[in-house]
Design a protein that fits this description.
two-stranded antiparallel ribbon, alpha+beta, single chain, 6 helices, 8 strands, Elongation Factor Tu (Ef-tu), domain 3, six-stranded antiparallel beta barrel
């Protein structure tokens, strides 16, 4: 696949700095769901998952380290050059899920043998709720399904935004502030 080039402005939602991929650039990606990309932001190398925004485009969080390395901040216009990659790095496994997997050897065994992309999907499904009890139930269900040999979560819309702190009803929120 060829390099996708675009410019866009960084903005904030709550305490997060977000980069929204323009629809025209997002349309060139292989999936409306989560997609791993590699490339540059203002010349700084990045590899990051693009999350769906629930509106047929994508976004990602630009954390402090990336902002500092790229020399950018909220309100700045940035230049990106990205390409989808099939190489998914290992996700950071949340402590509660890690503990549940350790307590369920059959689930942990399959977890070790599924692809990193599948592990990202399980984590995405689990974290897509802001309710503590729902999260606990999803972890229990994930362990049960993994124990039963199911390699991926099923029956949920992968094209929706699943980060509760920046979305409502599966759609990325609008910026909370802008810099002119």
């Amino acid at each position: 696949m060829s390099t996708i080039r675009f410019e866009t402005k960084l903005f904030t939602i709550g305490s997060w700095t977000i980069l929204r991929v323009p629809e025209s650039a997002s349309a060139k990606l292989p999936s409306r769901g989560q997609t791993m990309v590699e490339g540059t932001i203002n010349g700084f190398h990045l590899q990051t998952p693009l999350e769906p925004d629930g509106k047929l485009s994508h976004w990602f969080r630009v954390d402090k380290a990336m902002r500092e390395a790229a020399g950018v901040d909220e309100g700045d216009t940035v230049t990106l050059e990205i390409e989808p990659t099939k190489e998914w790095p290992e996700p950071d496994v949340p402590a509660d899920l890690k503990s549940a997997l350790a307590a369920t050897p059959e689930a942990y065994n399959l977890w070790q043998h599924i692809t990193p992309m599948a592990r990202w999907e399980w984590i995405r499904w689990i974290r897509s709720t802001s309710q503590t009890e729902t999260r606990k139930r999803r972890i229990e269900v994930a362990c049960s399904k993994l124990k039963a040999g199911e390699r991926r979560p099923c029956c949920w819309n992968r094209n929706l935004c699943t980060e509760p702190s920046v979305s409502r009803n599966g759609v990325l929120l609008e910026p909370t502030q802008t810099t002119e």
